[in-house]
Amino acid sequence: MNLISTTAALLCVVLQSTSHAFVLPTNSPRQPTFVLKAANANAIPFADRATSMGNERAVSSTSSSARPEDLAPPLEADMQVAVNIDTPEPVKVQGGALRTWTTTSPEVNRMLLSMSTDGPPEGTPLLALVELHQGPENTPMKMQVKSGKGSLRPIRALIETPGSGHSLFIRNLEALEFPIWAKVKDCTSEAVDKAVHEMGSPKLLQGGGAVTSYPLDPNVSVVKVLLRTDGRPLNAAVELVQGPNAVKVLMEVYTEDGIEWPFYCLIETPGSENTIRVWSTGTVEFPLTVCVEPFLIQEPVKKDSYFLMD
């Protein structure tokens, strides 16, 4: 008892003699609160990446790369200068990174987007989120694209950019081991206008989950797809199916106006038994018009030519 009394008396003397005040946080009576401030507040960790288009968040930074082992990277390593659309070389987008292409000229009415991968002979998987921003808080178009083999089946699409002040965001949703080679350039010409807007045989696809299919001949190596509306929002999914139900390419598209921002893409169809399948992912009140035509047809090889020798 004497030892306890002596210890308590010494503690009282120390507390009375010190001038510091010990205050516990009100939100945690036992442990203090720690706040980790990252160098880039817009960086999205891998664990927070959404797999669906509706849960993706728009990022206003020029380029970001979030790593789980380094939550607060240096600002110099996390930020990169945006790429101009006149850059002829493709840009490497690492897994989890974000790159942007900007244009301020009102004469640029259309961008040509091309994405592919390298690695094995047919390419590594490709999974990316593409967003078109006009102004600080306006996203008139976005799409999520997926290709099982990015070199064999690359992604090529035309993105309309009416007006000025556009920025194209490309985020690689794959792991760090699967980079994407992306290229964006100005594609404003009358020849492209005719190729896009003069496609025949349109088909009305009602909303509410309606689907239409286009079986392809083995001679068709590249097919073009055009989706439009009468001014209402466009919600659709375009698939390249090979065999019974093997989805090789998937594009989920949203535009707020199907006239100002129609969707036009080229899909390579190597092999045989290919089918283009288009889904209307919007409600019944938002139908869309579908046009699918061959873009490149290879001449069939004669059976006897296999046995010809020089």
Main sheet record: 9 strands, mixed
Order of helices and strands: HHEEEEEEEEEHEEEEEEEE
Gap from first CA to last CA: 110 Å
Oligomer: single chain
Mean pLDDT score, rounded? 74
- Rg on CA atoms, Å: 27 Å
Anisotropy-based shape: globular
Portion in beta strands: 35-45%
- Total of helices: 3
**How many strand elements?**
17
Query: Which spans have pLDDT < 50 for at least 5 consecutive residues?
Result: 13-83, 302-310
Helix content: under 10%
How are the strands of the largest sheet arranged? Answer: 1-3-8-5-6-14-13-16-11
Report the structural category: mainly beta
Protein described:
There is one protein chain. By secondary structure, the protein is mainly beta. The protein is built from 3 helices and 17 strands. The chain has helices at residues 2-17, 75-78, 190-197, and strands at residues 83-84, 91-93, 98-103, 110-116, 126-134, 141-147, 155-160, 166-172, 180-186, 203-205, 211-215, 220-228, 234-242, 246-255, 263-268, 274-280, 288-297. Strands 1-3-8-5-6-14-13-16-11 form a 9-stranded mixed beta sheet, with no helix packed on it. An 8-stranded antiparallel beta sheet has the order 2-9-4-7-15-12-17-10, with no helix packed on it. Strand 5 (126-134) and strand 6 (141-147) form a beta hairpin. The chain is globular and about 45 Å long. The termini are far apart.
